[in-house]
Structure formats: structure tokens, C-alpha cells
Amino acid sequence: MQKFQEDGAKVFGISTDNSPSQKAFAQTLGLTFPLLSDFLDRHVAKAYGIYIADYGIANRVTFVIDEQGKIANIESGGDAIKMLTTPDACSRLAHKKKTT
Length: 100
Known about the structure:
alpha+beta; Glutaredoxin; 40% helix
């Protein structure tokens, strides 16, 4: 998390789980960033094309979104949890911001 903070990134999670489930999940893992619930209508998951209607869940995906709201990086599946390219994508955006 320190690397993201150094790059000025804002980190949060969004899930199709309800708020009590998210709270328990965050406490179990000791998460230090907010988790937002997309439980009622799955609007966010649908808008980003990651909603799996047959199961009523969203695919695990990590998005890096720039200040203009454009997606700069996507990791899905197991890589979304490992976040292999996410830190570098945040660093590139931070560097770009400093040079413009």
C-alpha cells in the first residue's frame, strides 16, 4: 500500500458482496483501504463489463484509472489479486503527472 500512496493513488475495493460480508472480509485480512458495496443492483460491475449474471457475482479485476477517468491498466483473474502490473501502472501515471 505504501507504493500506491507514494504515487498518489487512491485505493479502494468494490464488490458485489453486501456490506457486512465486506466488513468481515476487511477485518480478516486487515485491509487498510475502503471497500464499497455494489450489492443492490451490481451497477458498477455491469458498467465495467465484469458482471457474471449466471452467478450474480463479478469477476476479480483490478483497474488503474487515471485522473481523467480513463482506464490505464487492467488485471483480471488471479493477477487481479497479485497485482503484478498495477504498481508500475500507478508509477507511470504519477510520473506522467509530474512531467505535464
